[in-house]
Design goal:
Elements (H helix, E strand, L loop, with lengths): L6 H13 L10 H9 L8 H4 L3 H12 L1 H10 L8 H7 L11 H12 L3 H4 L2 E2 L5 E2 L3 E7 L5 E7 L3 H22 L3 H4 L1 H16 L1 H14 L6 E2 L12 E5 L4 E2 L3 H6 L4 H19 L2 E2 L7 E3 L9 E3 L5 E2 L3 H16 L2 H10 L9 H12 L12 H14 L6 H20 L5 H16 L2 H18 L2 H15 L9 H9 L3 H24 L6 H4 L3 H15 L5
Helix pairs in contact: 1-4, 4-5, 4-6, 5-11, 9-11, 14-19, 14-20, 15-16, 15-20, 16-17, 17-18, 18-19, 21-24, 22-24, 24-26
Protein backbone atom coordinates (compact mmCIF):
# COMPACT_ATOMS: atom_id res chain seq x y z
CA UNK A 1 0.00 0.00 0.00
CA UNK A 2 1.32 3.41 -0.95
CA UNK A 3 1.93 6.03 1.70
CA UNK A 4 -1.02 8.43 2.04
CA UNK A 5 0.44 11.92 2.09
CA UNK A 6 -2.85 13.82 2.39
CA UNK A 7 -5.08 11.94 4.87
CA UNK A 8 -7.50 14.87 5.15
CA UNK A 9 -7.99 14.92 1.39
CA UNK A 10 -8.59 11.16 1.40
CA UNK A 11 -11.17 11.57 4.16
CA UNK A 12 -12.85 14.27 2.08
CA UNK A 13 -13.04 11.89 -0.88
CA UNK A 14 -14.56 9.14 1.29
CA UNK A 15 -17.03 11.59 2.81
CA UNK A 16 -18.19 12.78 -0.64
CA UNK A 17 -18.39 9.17 -1.87
CA UNK A 18 -20.58 8.27 1.09
CA UNK A 19 -22.70 11.41 0.80
CA UNK A 20 -23.52 10.65 -2.84
CA UNK A 21 -24.13 6.99 -2.04
CA UNK A 22 -21.47 5.63 -4.37
CA UNK A 23 -21.53 2.33 -2.50
CA UNK A 24 -24.04 1.22 -5.15
CA UNK A 25 -21.23 1.32 -7.74
CA UNK A 26 -19.19 -1.15 -5.66
CA UNK A 27 -21.92 -3.67 -4.92
CA UNK A 28 -20.60 -6.93 -3.53
CA UNK A 29 -17.17 -5.58 -2.48
CA UNK A 30 -15.62 -4.76 0.89
CA UNK A 31 -15.30 -1.11 -0.19
CA UNK A 32 -19.07 -0.90 -0.44
CA UNK A 33 -19.37 -2.09 3.15
CA UNK A 34 -16.90 0.61 4.28
CA UNK A 35 -18.95 3.32 2.58
CA UNK A 36 -22.16 1.98 4.12
CA UNK A 37 -20.58 2.28 7.58
CA UNK A 38 -19.72 5.91 6.77
CA UNK A 39 -23.36 6.50 5.83
CA UNK A 40 -24.18 6.51 9.55
CA UNK A 41 -21.94 9.52 10.23
CA UNK A 42 -22.41 11.45 6.96
CA UNK A 43 -25.35 13.88 6.65
CA UNK A 44 -28.26 12.35 4.76
CA UNK A 45 -28.19 12.98 1.04
CA UNK A 46 -30.86 15.15 -0.51
CA UNK A 47 -33.84 13.62 -2.26
CA UNK A 48 -32.28 14.66 -5.58
CA UNK A 49 -29.25 12.47 -4.84
CA UNK A 50 -31.07 9.44 -3.46
CA UNK A 51 -33.44 9.34 -6.45
CA UNK A 52 -30.76 9.98 -9.06
CA UNK A 53 -29.24 7.28 -11.24
CA UNK A 54 -25.86 5.88 -10.29
CA UNK A 55 -24.17 7.73 -13.16
CA UNK A 56 -25.65 11.04 -12.10
CA UNK A 57 -24.59 10.44 -8.46
CA UNK A 58 -21.02 9.80 -9.61
CA UNK A 59 -21.04 12.95 -11.76
CA UNK A 60 -22.32 15.08 -8.87
CA UNK A 61 -19.67 13.61 -6.55
CA UNK A 62 -16.85 14.45 -8.96
CA UNK A 63 -18.15 17.99 -9.33
CA UNK A 64 -18.24 18.31 -5.52
CA UNK A 65 -14.60 17.17 -5.29
CA UNK A 66 -13.41 20.01 -7.51
CA UNK A 67 -12.01 20.80 -10.95
CA UNK A 68 -9.23 18.20 -10.99
CA UNK A 69 -11.69 15.38 -10.33
CA UNK A 70 -13.94 16.84 -13.03
CA UNK A 71 -11.01 16.44 -15.41
CA UNK A 72 -10.44 12.90 -14.14
CA UNK A 73 -14.07 12.11 -14.90
CA UNK A 74 -13.80 13.54 -18.39
CA UNK A 75 -10.77 11.40 -19.14
CA UNK A 76 -12.43 8.34 -17.62
CA UNK A 77 -15.50 8.90 -19.82
CA UNK A 78 -13.36 8.01 -22.82
CA UNK A 79 -12.91 4.46 -21.48
CA UNK A 80 -16.27 3.14 -22.61
CA UNK A 81 -14.72 -0.31 -22.80
CA UNK A 82 -14.52 -0.30 -18.98
CA UNK A 83 -17.65 1.62 -18.01
CA UNK A 84 -21.35 0.82 -18.35
CA UNK A 85 -22.98 3.02 -20.99
CA UNK A 86 -25.13 4.97 -18.49
CA UNK A 87 -22.09 5.97 -16.41
CA UNK A 88 -19.97 6.87 -19.45
CA UNK A 89 -22.80 9.07 -20.81
CA UNK A 90 -23.12 10.93 -17.51
CA UNK A 91 -19.35 11.48 -17.18
CA UNK A 92 -19.26 12.86 -20.73
CA UNK A 93 -21.62 15.62 -19.51
CA UNK A 94 -19.11 16.94 -16.97
CA UNK A 95 -18.56 20.64 -17.60
CA UNK A 96 -14.99 21.85 -17.12
CA UNK A 97 -15.90 25.41 -16.07
CA UNK A 98 -14.51 26.91 -12.88
CA UNK A 99 -14.08 30.40 -11.48
CA UNK A 100 -11.26 32.37 -13.15
CA UNK A 101 -8.11 33.17 -11.23
CA UNK A 102 -6.79 36.72 -10.73
CA UNK A 103 -5.76 38.32 -14.03
CA UNK A 104 -2.71 39.85 -12.29
CA UNK A 105 -1.46 36.29 -11.71
CA UNK A 106 -2.10 35.46 -15.38
CA UNK A 107 -0.15 38.53 -16.50
CA UNK A 108 2.75 37.65 -14.21
CA UNK A 109 2.76 34.10 -15.62
CA UNK A 110 2.86 35.40 -19.20
CA UNK A 111 5.68 37.84 -18.46
CA UNK A 112 7.71 35.23 -16.59
CA UNK A 113 7.30 32.66 -19.39
CA UNK A 114 7.91 35.01 -22.34
CA UNK A 115 10.51 37.27 -20.70
CA UNK A 116 8.92 40.64 -21.51
CA UNK A 117 6.17 42.88 -20.10
CA UNK A 118 2.70 42.27 -21.51
CA UNK A 119 2.63 45.88 -22.77
CA UNK A 120 5.61 45.13 -25.02
CA UNK A 121 4.29 41.75 -26.18
CA UNK A 122 0.78 42.90 -27.14
CA UNK A 123 -0.76 46.13 -28.38
CA UNK A 124 -3.89 45.29 -26.37
CA UNK A 125 -4.53 42.76 -23.61
CA UNK A 126 -7.96 42.03 -22.10
CA UNK A 127 -7.60 41.30 -18.38
CA UNK A 128 -11.10 39.82 -18.30
CA UNK A 129 -10.74 36.12 -19.27
CA UNK A 130 -12.77 34.77 -22.17
CA UNK A 131 -13.04 31.33 -20.55
CA UNK A 132 -11.73 29.51 -17.50
CA UNK A 133 -11.24 25.78 -16.92
CA UNK A 134 -9.52 23.52 -14.41
CA UNK A 135 -6.15 23.48 -16.21
CA UNK A 136 -5.95 26.97 -17.75
CA UNK A 137 -7.82 30.13 -18.64
CA UNK A 138 -7.92 32.15 -21.86
CA UNK A 139 -7.43 35.89 -22.46
CA UNK A 140 -7.95 37.91 -25.63
CA UNK A 141 -5.25 40.23 -27.01
CA UNK A 142 -4.15 42.08 -30.14
CA UNK A 143 -0.70 42.08 -31.72
CA UNK A 144 1.14 45.20 -32.87
CA UNK A 145 0.22 44.42 -36.49
CA UNK A 146 -3.49 44.35 -35.60
CA UNK A 147 -4.02 40.58 -35.61
CA UNK A 148 -6.28 39.21 -32.87
CA UNK A 149 -5.01 36.36 -30.71
CA UNK A 150 -6.02 34.35 -27.65
CA UNK A 151 -3.58 33.46 -24.88
CA UNK A 152 -4.02 30.28 -22.88
CA UNK A 153 -2.35 30.48 -19.46
CA UNK A 154 -1.87 27.58 -17.03
CA UNK A 155 -3.63 27.89 -13.69
CA UNK A 156 -1.06 28.65 -10.93
CA UNK A 157 -0.09 25.68 -8.78
CA UNK A 158 -1.99 23.28 -11.01
CA UNK A 159 0.94 20.87 -11.44
CA UNK A 160 1.33 20.38 -7.67
CA UNK A 161 -2.42 19.98 -7.24
CA UNK A 162 -2.55 17.34 -9.97
CA UNK A 163 0.42 15.49 -8.45
CA UNK A 164 -1.28 15.39 -5.05
CA UNK A 165 -4.62 14.19 -6.40
CA UNK A 166 -3.00 11.61 -8.68
CA UNK A 167 -1.20 10.28 -5.62
CA UNK A 168 -4.55 9.87 -3.91
CA UNK A 169 -6.01 8.20 -7.00
CA UNK A 170 -3.16 5.70 -6.89
CA UNK A 171 -4.08 4.89 -3.28
CA UNK A 172 -7.70 4.39 -4.33
CA UNK A 173 -6.55 2.26 -7.29
CA UNK A 174 -4.60 0.06 -4.88
CA UNK A 175 -7.73 -0.35 -2.76
CA UNK A 176 -9.80 -1.13 -5.85
CA UNK A 177 -7.23 -3.71 -6.98
CA UNK A 178 -7.39 -5.48 -3.61
CA UNK A 179 -11.08 -5.15 -2.84
CA UNK A 180 -12.88 -3.88 -5.94
CA UNK A 181 -14.97 -5.72 -8.55
CA UNK A 182 -13.18 -7.49 -11.43
CA UNK A 183 -9.75 -5.79 -10.96
CA UNK A 184 -8.05 -8.10 -13.50
CA UNK A 185 -10.17 -6.72 -16.32
CA UNK A 186 -10.50 -3.09 -15.18
CA UNK A 187 -6.84 -2.78 -14.08
CA UNK A 188 -7.25 0.33 -11.88
CA UNK A 189 -3.51 1.11 -11.81
CA UNK A 190 -3.39 1.26 -15.62
CA UNK A 191 -6.46 3.51 -15.75
CA UNK A 192 -4.81 5.93 -13.30
CA UNK A 193 -1.61 5.83 -15.40
CA UNK A 194 -3.66 6.78 -18.46
CA UNK A 195 -5.37 9.65 -16.62
CA UNK A 196 -1.98 10.84 -15.35
CA UNK A 197 -0.46 10.83 -18.86
CA UNK A 198 -3.41 12.72 -20.30
CA UNK A 199 -3.31 15.41 -17.61
CA UNK A 200 0.47 15.85 -17.78
CA UNK A 201 0.25 16.25 -21.54
CA UNK A 202 -2.32 19.03 -21.02
CA UNK A 203 0.08 20.79 -18.63
CA UNK A 204 2.57 21.29 -21.49
CA UNK A 205 1.04 24.03 -23.65
CA UNK A 206 4.00 23.90 -26.02
CA UNK A 207 3.03 20.31 -26.76
CA UNK A 208 -0.54 21.43 -27.43
CA UNK A 209 0.82 24.10 -29.78
CA UNK A 210 2.78 21.43 -31.66
CA UNK A 211 -0.40 19.34 -32.01
CA UNK A 212 -2.25 22.36 -33.42
CA UNK A 213 0.61 23.10 -35.81
CA UNK A 214 0.62 19.56 -37.24
CA UNK A 215 -3.16 19.51 -37.67
CA UNK A 216 -3.06 22.93 -39.35
CA UNK A 217 -0.37 21.74 -41.76
CA UNK A 218 -2.42 18.66 -42.64
CA UNK A 219 -5.45 20.79 -43.54
CA UNK A 220 -3.84 23.96 -44.86
CA UNK A 221 -6.14 25.55 -47.49
CA UNK A 222 -8.81 22.91 -46.77
CA UNK A 223 -12.45 23.68 -47.50
CA UNK A 224 -13.50 21.32 -44.71
CA UNK A 225 -11.46 22.26 -41.62
CA UNK A 226 -9.71 25.37 -40.33
CA UNK A 227 -7.07 25.22 -37.59
CA UNK A 228 -5.87 28.48 -36.01
CA UNK A 229 -2.23 29.48 -36.40
CA UNK A 230 0.19 29.08 -33.50
CA UNK A 231 2.31 32.14 -32.66
CA UNK A 232 5.48 30.37 -31.59
CA UNK A 233 7.38 33.48 -30.47
CA UNK A 234 4.59 34.04 -27.92
CA UNK A 235 4.35 30.43 -26.77
CA UNK A 236 6.08 28.53 -23.97
CA UNK A 237 5.39 25.52 -21.77
CA UNK A 238 2.87 27.42 -19.64
CA UNK A 239 1.59 29.96 -22.23
CA UNK A 240 0.05 29.27 -25.65
CA UNK A 241 -0.83 32.03 -28.11
CA UNK A 242 -3.16 31.19 -31.00
CA UNK A 243 -4.88 33.10 -33.76
CA UNK A 244 -8.32 34.17 -32.56
CA UNK A 245 -11.17 32.55 -34.47
CA UNK A 246 -14.93 33.02 -34.32
CA UNK A 247 -17.67 30.58 -35.11
CA UNK A 248 -20.80 28.76 -33.98
CA UNK A 249 -20.76 25.69 -31.76
CA UNK A 250 -21.47 22.62 -33.87
CA UNK A 251 -24.44 21.66 -31.64
CA UNK A 252 -26.16 25.08 -31.78
CA UNK A 253 -28.73 24.14 -34.41
CA UNK A 254 -30.76 27.35 -34.05
CA UNK A 255 -27.70 29.56 -34.64
CA UNK A 256 -26.56 27.42 -37.58
CA UNK A 257 -29.99 27.67 -39.20
CA UNK A 258 -30.10 31.42 -38.57
CA UNK A 259 -26.75 31.75 -40.34
CA UNK A 260 -28.06 29.77 -43.33
CA UNK A 261 -25.56 26.92 -42.88
CA UNK A 262 -26.08 23.86 -45.09
CA UNK A 263 -26.27 21.31 -42.26
CA UNK A 264 -26.47 18.23 -44.50
CA UNK A 265 -23.26 19.17 -46.24
CA UNK A 266 -21.65 19.99 -42.91
CA UNK A 267 -22.63 16.63 -41.39
CA UNK A 268 -21.12 14.68 -44.29
CA UNK A 269 -17.91 16.72 -44.07
CA UNK A 270 -17.52 15.80 -40.41
CA UNK A 271 -17.57 12.08 -41.19
CA UNK A 272 -15.11 12.48 -44.08
CA UNK A 273 -12.78 14.55 -41.88
CA UNK A 274 -12.63 11.80 -39.26
CA UNK A 275 -11.57 9.11 -41.73
CA UNK A 276 -9.13 11.47 -43.41
CA UNK A 277 -7.43 12.32 -40.11
CA UNK A 278 -7.24 8.68 -38.99
CA UNK A 279 -6.31 6.85 -42.19
CA UNK A 280 -4.62 9.49 -44.36
CA UNK A 281 -2.69 11.44 -41.70
CA UNK A 282 -2.76 9.04 -38.72
CA UNK A 283 -3.19 12.11 -36.51
CA UNK A 284 -6.66 12.93 -35.24
CA UNK A 285 -8.27 15.46 -32.91
CA UNK A 286 -9.41 13.24 -30.04
CA UNK A 287 -11.46 15.71 -27.98
CA UNK A 288 -14.03 16.51 -30.63
CA UNK A 289 -17.02 17.55 -28.53
CA UNK A 290 -19.16 20.51 -29.60
CA UNK A 291 -17.26 22.97 -27.39
CA UNK A 292 -14.06 22.27 -29.31
CA UNK A 293 -15.57 22.00 -32.80
CA UNK A 294 -17.09 25.19 -34.19
CA UNK A 295 -18.52 26.09 -37.58
CA UNK A 296 -17.28 28.95 -39.77
CA UNK A 297 -20.38 31.13 -40.27
CA UNK A 298 -18.82 33.16 -43.10
CA UNK A 299 -19.27 30.31 -45.62
CA UNK A 300 -22.94 29.20 -45.40
CA UNK A 301 -23.05 27.45 -48.81
CA UNK A 302 -19.73 25.63 -48.31
CA UNK A 303 -19.40 25.40 -44.52
CA UNK A 304 -16.27 24.23 -42.77
CA UNK A 305 -15.38 23.31 -39.24
CA UNK A 306 -13.01 25.17 -36.91
CA UNK A 307 -10.99 23.06 -34.48
CA UNK A 308 -10.06 24.24 -30.98
CA UNK A 309 -8.24 22.79 -27.95
CA UNK A 310 -5.52 20.41 -29.09
CA UNK A 311 -4.47 18.98 -25.74
CA UNK A 312 -5.68 15.48 -26.66
CA UNK A 313 -4.78 14.04 -30.05
CA UNK A 314 -4.44 10.45 -31.18
CA UNK A 315 -2.44 8.31 -33.57
CA UNK A 316 -2.21 4.57 -34.08
CA UNK A 317 0.67 2.16 -34.61
CA UNK A 318 0.92 1.12 -38.27
CA UNK A 319 -0.33 -2.38 -37.50
CA UNK A 320 -3.43 -1.18 -35.60
CA UNK A 321 -4.17 1.37 -38.32
CA UNK A 322 -4.04 -1.37 -40.96
CA UNK A 323 -6.22 -3.79 -39.00
CA UNK A 324 -8.71 -1.07 -38.11
CA UNK A 325 -9.06 -0.03 -41.77
CA UNK A 326 -9.53 -3.67 -42.80
CA UNK A 327 -12.10 -4.10 -40.01
CA UNK A 328 -14.10 -1.13 -41.24
CA UNK A 329 -13.99 -2.52 -44.78
CA UNK A 330 -15.15 -5.93 -43.55
CA UNK A 331 -17.96 -4.29 -41.54
CA UNK A 332 -19.07 -2.39 -44.64
CA UNK A 333 -19.12 -5.72 -46.54
CA UNK A 334 -20.76 -7.62 -43.63
CA UNK A 335 -17.95 -10.16 -43.78
CA UNK A 336 -18.09 -11.57 -40.24
CA UNK A 337 -15.48 -14.24 -40.87
CA UNK A 338 -13.00 -11.60 -42.00
CA UNK A 339 -13.72 -9.46 -38.92
CA UNK A 340 -13.01 -12.45 -36.68
CA UNK A 341 -9.79 -13.26 -38.57
CA UNK A 342 -8.61 -9.66 -38.29
CA UNK A 343 -9.22 -9.54 -34.54
CA UNK A 344 -7.04 -12.63 -34.14
CA UNK A 345 -4.33 -11.45 -36.54
CA UNK A 346 -4.14 -8.06 -34.79
CA UNK A 347 -3.67 -9.70 -31.40
CA UNK A 348 -6.89 -8.13 -30.10
CA UNK A 349 -8.02 -11.64 -29.15
CA UNK A 350 -6.05 -14.50 -27.57
CA UNK A 351 -4.62 -16.94 -30.15
CA UNK A 352 -6.42 -19.78 -28.35
CA UNK A 353 -9.86 -18.46 -29.40
CA UNK A 354 -11.62 -20.67 -31.95
CA UNK A 355 -12.25 -18.76 -35.17
CA UNK A 356 -15.78 -20.17 -35.61
CA UNK A 357 -16.73 -19.18 -32.04
CA UNK A 358 -15.42 -15.67 -32.61
CA UNK A 359 -17.23 -15.42 -35.94
CA UNK A 360 -20.47 -16.33 -34.18
CA UNK A 361 -19.88 -13.68 -31.50
CA UNK A 362 -19.17 -11.03 -34.17
CA UNK A 363 -22.30 -12.05 -36.10
CA UNK A 364 -24.37 -11.72 -32.92
CA UNK A 365 -23.05 -8.17 -32.46
CA UNK A 366 -23.36 -6.94 -36.03
CA UNK A 367 -26.42 -8.65 -37.47
CA UNK A 368 -29.01 -6.79 -35.35
CA UNK A 369 -27.65 -3.51 -36.70
CA UNK A 370 -28.13 -4.61 -40.30
CA UNK A 371 -31.85 -5.08 -39.76
CA UNK A 372 -32.09 -1.28 -39.53
CA UNK A 373 -31.86 1.16 -42.43
CA UNK A 374 -28.22 1.99 -43.10
CA UNK A 375 -28.91 5.63 -42.27
CA UNK A 376 -29.65 4.58 -38.66
CA UNK A 377 -26.48 2.56 -38.08
CA UNK A 378 -23.62 4.13 -36.11
CA UNK A 379 -20.18 2.65 -36.75
CA UNK A 380 -19.01 3.88 -33.36
CA UNK A 381 -21.64 1.74 -31.65
CA UNK A 382 -20.72 -1.32 -33.72
CA UNK A 383 -17.04 -0.82 -32.91
CA UNK A 384 -17.83 -0.40 -29.20
CA UNK A 385 -19.76 -3.69 -29.17
CA UNK A 386 -16.88 -5.45 -30.95
CA UNK A 387 -14.44 -4.11 -28.35
CA UNK A 388 -16.74 -5.45 -25.63
CA UNK A 389 -16.54 -8.86 -27.30
CA UNK A 390 -12.76 -8.59 -26.93
CA UNK A 391 -13.23 -7.91 -23.24
CA UNK A 392 -15.33 -11.03 -22.81
CA UNK A 393 -12.19 -12.88 -23.88
CA UNK A 394 -10.20 -11.08 -21.14
CA UNK A 395 -8.23 -8.86 -23.50
CA UNK A 396 -7.57 -5.17 -22.75
CA UNK A 397 -7.30 -2.96 -25.83
CA UNK A 398 -4.74 -0.20 -26.25
CA UNK A 399 -5.92 3.22 -25.00
CA UNK A 400 -5.47 4.80 -28.45
CA UNK A 401 -8.03 2.42 -29.96
CA UNK A 402 -10.52 3.34 -27.23
CA UNK A 403 -9.74 7.03 -27.78
CA UNK A 404 -10.46 6.60 -31.48
CA UNK A 405 -13.73 4.81 -30.81
CA UNK A 406 -14.81 7.60 -28.42
CA UNK A 407 -13.93 10.20 -31.07
CA UNK A 408 -15.94 8.29 -33.67
CA UNK A 409 -18.96 8.31 -31.34
CA UNK A 410 -18.59 12.10 -30.95
CA UNK A 411 -18.31 12.64 -34.70
CA UNK A 412 -21.26 10.43 -35.55
CA UNK A 413 -23.36 11.99 -32.78
CA UNK A 414 -22.66 15.48 -34.10
CA UNK A 415 -23.33 14.32 -37.67
CA UNK A 416 -26.73 12.89 -36.76
CA UNK A 417 -27.58 16.03 -34.78
CA UNK A 418 -26.84 18.17 -37.83
CA UNK A 419 -28.57 15.80 -40.25
CA UNK A 420 -30.82 13.14 -38.66
CA UNK A 421 -31.01 11.30 -42.01
CA UNK A 422 -27.23 11.17 -42.48
CA UNK A 423 -26.19 7.81 -43.98
CA UNK A 424 -22.84 7.42 -42.25
CA UNK A 425 -22.05 4.20 -44.11
CA UNK A 426 -22.63 5.67 -47.56
CA UNK A 427 -20.55 8.71 -46.60
CA UNK A 428 -17.66 6.85 -44.99
CA UNK A 429 -17.18 3.85 -47.29
CA UNK A 430 -15.98 5.66 -50.46
CA UNK A 431 -13.71 7.97 -48.42
CA UNK A 432 -12.01 5.03 -46.71
CA UNK A 433 -11.76 3.10 -50.00
CA UNK A 434 -10.12 6.05 -51.76
CA UNK A 435 -7.64 6.68 -48.92
CA UNK A 436 -6.65 3.00 -48.88
CA UNK A 437 -6.36 2.96 -52.67
CA UNK A 438 -3.94 5.89 -52.54
CA UNK A 439 -1.97 4.41 -49.63
CA UNK A 440 -1.43 1.13 -51.46
CA UNK A 441 -0.83 2.58 -54.93
CA UNK A 442 2.47 1.85 -56.72
CA UNK A 443 3.51 5.48 -56.18
CA UNK A 444 2.92 5.27 -52.41
CA UNK A 445 4.69 1.92 -52.14
CA UNK A 446 7.67 3.29 -54.09
CA UNK A 447 7.80 6.31 -51.77
CA UNK A 448 7.81 4.11 -48.68
CA UNK A 449 10.54 1.97 -50.21
CA UNK A 450 12.68 5.06 -50.84
CA UNK A 451 12.18 6.13 -47.21
CA UNK A 452 13.29 2.74 -45.93
CA UNK A 453 16.05 2.23 -48.48
CA UNK A 454 18.91 3.53 -46.26
CA UNK A 455 18.02 1.05 -43.53
CA UNK A 456 17.66 -1.79 -46.03
CA UNK A 457 21.01 -0.92 -47.59
CA UNK A 458 22.69 -1.05 -44.19
CA UNK A 459 21.18 -4.48 -43.47
CA UNK A 460 21.59 -5.90 -47.00
CA UNK A 461 25.26 -6.99 -46.67
CA UNK A 462 24.32 -9.20 -43.71
CA UNK A 463 21.44 -11.01 -45.49
CA UNK A 464 23.58 -13.50 -47.52
CA UNK A 465 25.65 -14.40 -44.44
CA UNK A 466 22.51 -14.87 -42.32
CA UNK A 467 20.97 -17.07 -45.02
CA UNK A 468 24.18 -19.10 -45.32
CA UNK A 469 24.39 -19.55 -41.54
CA UNK A 470 20.83 -20.76 -41.44
CA UNK A 471 21.37 -23.17 -44.34
CA UNK A 472 24.41 -24.64 -42.56
CA UNK A 473 22.39 -25.07 -39.37
CA UNK A 474 19.59 -26.69 -41.38
CA UNK A 475 22.03 -29.19 -42.93
CA UNK A 476 23.48 -29.98 -39.48
CA UNK A 477 19.98 -30.33 -38.01
CA UNK A 478 20.52 -27.40 -35.62
CA UNK A 479 18.04 -24.93 -37.17
CA UNK A 480 14.75 -24.50 -35.37
CA UNK A 481 11.69 -22.54 -36.39
CA UNK A 482 10.04 -20.61 -33.54
CA UNK A 483 6.26 -20.55 -33.85
CA UNK A 484 3.77 -19.02 -31.45
CA UNK A 485 0.64 -20.97 -32.30
CA UNK A 486 0.24 -24.48 -30.88
CA UNK A 487 -1.52 -25.56 -34.07
CA UNK A 488 1.39 -24.36 -36.22
CA UNK A 489 3.89 -26.00 -33.90
CA UNK A 490 2.14 -29.36 -34.20
CA UNK A 491 1.99 -28.94 -37.97
CA UNK A 492 5.72 -28.19 -38.07
CA UNK A 493 6.47 -31.28 -36.01
CA UNK A 494 4.28 -33.47 -38.21
CA UNK A 495 5.77 -32.46 -41.55
CA UNK A 496 9.08 -33.74 -42.89
CA UNK A 497 9.51 -30.86 -45.30
CA UNK A 498 9.63 -27.99 -42.82
CA UNK A 499 13.35 -27.26 -43.26
CA UNK A 500 13.09 -27.41 -47.06
CA UNK A 501 10.23 -24.87 -47.05
CA UNK A 502 12.16 -22.60 -44.69
CA UNK A 503 15.20 -22.70 -46.96
CA UNK A 504 13.06 -21.75 -49.95
CA UNK A 505 11.45 -18.94 -47.92
CA UNK A 506 14.81 -17.46 -46.91
CA UNK A 507 16.01 -17.74 -50.51
CA UNK A 508 12.83 -16.04 -51.80
CA UNK A 509 13.13 -13.16 -49.33
CA UNK A 510 16.78 -12.59 -50.25
CA UNK A 511 16.03 -12.47 -53.98
CA UNK A 512 13.03 -10.16 -53.62
CA UNK A 513 14.88 -7.77 -51.25
CA UNK A 514 17.79 -7.60 -53.71
CA UNK A 515 15.42 -6.84 -56.58
CA UNK A 516 13.65 -4.18 -54.54
CA UNK A 517 16.96 -2.52 -53.66
CA UNK A 518 17.96 -2.37 -57.32
CA UNK A 519 14.56 -0.93 -58.24
CA UNK A 520 14.67 1.61 -55.41
CA UNK A 521 18.13 2.87 -56.40
CA UNK A 522 17.06 3.46 -60.01
CA UNK A 523 15.71 7.02 -60.53
CA UNK A 524 12.33 7.35 -62.24
CA UNK A 525 12.41 7.89 -65.98
CA UNK A 526 10.72 6.92 -69.23
CA UNK A 527 12.79 3.70 -69.56
CA UNK A 528 13.59 2.89 -65.96
CA UNK A 529 12.37 -0.71 -66.33
CA UNK A 530 14.97 -1.55 -68.93
CA UNK A 531 18.12 -0.37 -67.18
CA UNK A 532 18.43 -2.88 -64.35
CA UNK A 533 17.76 -6.00 -66.42
CA UNK A 534 18.45 -8.17 -63.38
CA UNK A 535 15.41 -6.89 -61.45
CA UNK A 536 12.86 -9.02 -63.27
CA UNK A 537 14.75 -12.37 -63.28
CA UNK A 538 15.50 -11.93 -59.58
CA UNK A 539 11.85 -11.12 -58.86
CA UNK A 540 10.72 -14.14 -60.90
CA UNK A 541 13.09 -16.49 -59.09
CA UNK A 542 11.97 -15.02 -55.77
CA UNK A 543 8.33 -15.65 -56.68
CA UNK A 544 9.06 -19.26 -57.67
CA UNK A 545 10.97 -19.85 -54.43
CA UNK A 546 8.12 -18.28 -52.47
CA UNK A 547 5.61 -20.64 -54.13
CA UNK A 548 7.89 -23.58 -53.31
CA UNK A 549 8.06 -22.42 -49.69
CA UNK A 550 4.29 -22.00 -49.37
CA UNK A 551 2.92 -24.61 -46.90
CA UNK A 552 0.71 -27.25 -48.51
CA UNK A 553 -1.93 -29.36 -46.84
CA UNK A 554 -0.99 -33.03 -46.79
Amino acid sequence: MRLIRSPLRLLTILRVAARYRLDGLLEGTRLARVLRVLNWVIPRASAEVTQASRGRRLRLALQALGPIFVKFGQVLSTRRDLLPADIADELAMLQDQVAPFDSAIAIAQIERSLGQPVAMLFAEFDAQPLASASIAQVHAARLADGREVVIKVLRPGIAALIDADIGLLRVLASLATRFGPDPERIRPDEVVDEISRSLRDELDLQREGANASVLRRNFLDSDDLYVPEVHWTLTAESVLTLERVRGIRSDDIAALDAAGIDRKQLAAKGVRLFYTQVFRDNFFHADAHAGNIWVDATRPEHPRYIALDFGIVGSLPDADQYYLAENFTAIFDRDYRRIAELHLEAGWMPASVRIDDLEGAVRAVCEPYFTRPLSEIALGEVLLKLFKVAHRYQLTLQPQLILLQKTLLNIEGTGRLLDPKLDIWATAKPVLAEILRQRHSPKALRQRLKQRLPGLLMAAPDVPQLALDYLRQAVDGRATLRLHSDDLRRMAEATQSGHRQTVFAVFAVGLIVTAALLLGMQPAGPHWWGVHWAVWPLSGLGLIAGIAAWPRRG
